[in-house]
């Protein structure tokens, strides 16, 4: 059965400090209401690349405590600062995370050898498995099939979170590495990834839209492609409306409409305007209520 993971958001107070109760409420909603298979903690949706090392650790700890073993957890520890990535990986493992993930080092156009060394160093001495976080549009790092093969030589690297709309590469990866885990990360293209043998999906919008995504996966598995299309069509109207309304703060605003106190996004992300609030209310009423 394919798994569905929500990419956990980090709730902030209006002054951009971490809002612990907001994170706890979102974790609980995912477990109690979404019955989610797992949470991806500290990724893009978690606004992690804007957090200090201490704040990233705080988010892992809150998510770990609140989950209390009721869902799988993956801690995204990647950083352009290798020392920070190693420290975060060690911390997550000490907390009890069994799986970590890391975006490749970005910004400086590192060579593949440097990228491979980064992953090997993060994993050295740790009893943990890792999922590569491939998101070329944001990281600027595109890995080829041959480069994935070299990274997968490290037996602790068990798969990839694939946020990339290159479906040829996705198909080649599935064919070449039937035993590696592939979690797809573009929620609006789930329909196209399902036939390529993904093991599941990890995404931001599943925080609010898990029921529809699960129904889509179940319809795919039952062979009902008409239903798959219909469900993806509604999901895409919802996702595109969120994107138009500024996705990260809007995911939180829709949560607020549902009584989940998800807080704010961190500057330089926007704080909600009256227009964004009205937009989120409309999205909630149209697609979630
Ligand atoms: C850039 C980004 O946030 N991508 C999301 C998607 O879930 C994305 O928000 C969604 O498909 C809407 O475009 C995930 O792939 C990434 C993610 O979940 C994470 O790292 O937290």
The biggest sheet, with number of strands, parallel, antiparallel or mixed sense and barrel status, is:
8 strands, parallel, barrel
Supply the CATH class. Alpha Beta
Residue windows where pLDDT falls under 50 for at least 5 positions: none
Provide the residue-averaged pLDDT: 98
- Based on CA inertia axes, which overall geometry fits? globular
Question: How many DSSP helices?
Answer: 12
Percent of residues in helices = 40-55%
In the CATH hierarchy, the third-tier topology is known as TIM Barrel
What is bound: which ligands?
A: the ligand CC(=O)N[C@@H]([C@@H](O)[C@H](O)[C@H](O)CO)[C@@H](O)CC(=O)C(=O)O
Largest sheet strand order: 1-2-3-4-5-6-7-8
Keywords: Lyase, Schiff base
Enzyme class: lyase
Protein name: N-acetylneuraminate lyase
Family: Belongs to the DapA family.
């Amino acid at each position: 059965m394919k798994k569905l993971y929500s990419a956990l958001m980090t709730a902030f107070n209006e002054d951009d400090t971490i809002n612990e109760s907001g994170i706890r409420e979102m974790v609980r909603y995912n477990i109690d209401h979404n019955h989610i298979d797992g949470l991806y903690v500290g990724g893009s949706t978690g606004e992690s690349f804007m957090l200090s090392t201490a704040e990233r650790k705080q988010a892992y700890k809150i998510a770990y405590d609140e989950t209390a073993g009721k869902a799988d957890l993956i801690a995204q520890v990647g950083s352009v600062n290798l020392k920070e990535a190693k420290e975060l990986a060690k911390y997550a493992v000490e907390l009890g995370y069994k799986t970590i993930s890391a975006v490749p080092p970005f910004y400086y156009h590192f060579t593949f050898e440097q990228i491979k060394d980064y992953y090997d160093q993060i994993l050295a001495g740790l009893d943990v498995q890792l999922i590569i976080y491939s998101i070329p549009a944001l990281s600027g790092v595109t890995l080829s099939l041959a480069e994935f093969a070299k990274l997968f030589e490290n037996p602790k690297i068990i798969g990839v979170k694939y946020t990339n709309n290159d479906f040829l590469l996705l198909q080649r990866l599935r064919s070449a590495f039937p035993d590696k885990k592939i979690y797809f990360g573009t929620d609006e293209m789930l329909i196209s990834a399902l036939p390529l043998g993904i093991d599941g999906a990890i995404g931001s919008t599943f925080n609010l839209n898990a029921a529809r995504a699960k129904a889509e996966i179940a319809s795919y598995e039952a062979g009902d492609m008409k239903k798959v299309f219909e469900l993806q069509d509604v999901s895409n109207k919802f996702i595109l409306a969120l994107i138009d309304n500024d996705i990260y703060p809007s995911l939180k605003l829709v949560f607020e409409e549902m009584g989940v106190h998800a807080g704010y996004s961190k500057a330089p992300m926007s704080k909600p305007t009256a227009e964004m609030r009205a937009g989120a209310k409309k999205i909630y009423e149209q697609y979630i209520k």
